[in-house]
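We close this part of the discussion by returning to an individual protein. The amino acid sequence and the backbone structure tokens for this protein are reproduced below:
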Amino acid sequence: MHAQVELLGRCAALTAEAMPKLAKPGSLDTYWVQINELENQADQVYRRLLSWLFSGEVDTLTVLKLKEVVDQLESAADAFEHVADVIHTIAVKES
């Protein structure tokens, strides 16, 4: 889960850095690419976490607790990609 949280932190930093650049949307191309790459990495981490959770190494109660956390982290990564898509749409309309 540490890897997933680290990826989310990187997404947050990139998004915060991109916001002032909305005035010049042409400078945001790398932002969309980087967020997409980070979200793809988050998807891979999510699948590995699910694989580990259901491998039989973890007791059932812990699986139930951690599954909810893992799902919420994945939702957060998806939300960053959605934000990047909205910013991209705004940038296209403003250009």
